[in-house]
């Protein structure tokens, strides 16, 4: 699939993305390829009927579509995007960007808790490389944007949906980045 990372500005699409299960299902389809609602449910820990509902919501906004690879009995879905960014500052009115971010953070926390719960099952070579890092930075708005662009440039070649040269032993890795100002700390002096 060619890389397709739209900037979502439609408030209805933004609001549709403000759900952690939808984000998880969309992420699974972007990385795992076509799957039925039942397969999605097994992967994200939800019910097939709930995943089917969320897939229909995502399809109504053009983020997923039916895949023709089914055998007539199975009806797989596929992602139509390889990622997205959200911008609620549009002439159409603000979408609930904070709700999308809240859903993404909720999903990140769920995935981290699930990883920690199953930590002993993870092969040692992967356990040795797990990471959680936190940095307190002093940045201008422009420096903030530059750092995010540089990180994106490093990560982008590894996006599973578009990577064609992944080694046979490559695993799906969830990478999350949150870069937010801390207004309660006050201005740096």
Can you walk me through this structure?
With 189 residues, the protein is mainly alpha-helical. The protein has a single domain, classed as Arc Repressor Mutant, subunit A (Orthogonal Bundle), CATH 1.10.10. It is built from seven helices and four strands; from the N terminus they run βααααβββααα. The strands form two sheets. The chain has a two-stranded parallel ribbon with strand order 1-4. Strands 2-3 form a two-stranded antiparallel sheet. The radius of gyration is 18 Å and the shape is globular. The model has no long low-confidence stretch (mean pLDDT 88).
Taken as a percent bin, the fraction of beta residues is: 5-15%
pLDDT under 50 segments (min length 5)?
A: none
Number of separate helices = 7
The string of secondary-structure elements, in order, is EHHHHEEEHHH
The CATH first-level class comes to Mainly Alpha
Summarize the structure.
This protein is mostly helical and 189 residues long. The chain contains 7 helices and 4 strands; from the N terminus they run E-H-H-H-H-E-E-E-H-H-H.
Give short descriptive properties of this protein.
189 residues; mainly alpha; Arc Repressor Mutant, subunit A; two-stranded parallel ribbon; 4 strands; 43% helix
Task: Itemize the secondary structure elements and their pairings.
Blueprint: E1 7-8, H1 11-17, H2 20-32, H3 37-44, H4 48-60, E2 64-66, E3 77-79, E4 85-86, H5 97-117, H6 124-127, H7 141-155
Parallel strand pairs: 1-4
Antiparallel strand pairs: 2-3
Helix pairs in contact: 2-3, 2-4, 2-5, 3-4
